[in-house]
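User: I'm curious whether this sequence folds into something compact or stays loose and floppy. Could you predict its structure so I can see for myself?
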Amino acid sequence: MNMTEVARLLLGLRAAGWTEKEINDFVLYIESGEEQYKPKPKNEKTE
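Assistant: Here's the prediction. I'll summarize afterward.
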């Protein structure tokens, strides 16, 4: 991924409502593969 693609990814995650911590942890998970940084599913209510 080049820097332009990374910037678009980060902006897209922000637009989707991700917090800075969630974004940082996601990037750390991609690079390290460590389970502690793996994104957790968000519980959504469906009514």
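Summary: The two ends are 39 Å apart (CA to CA). Residues 3-37 form one domain.
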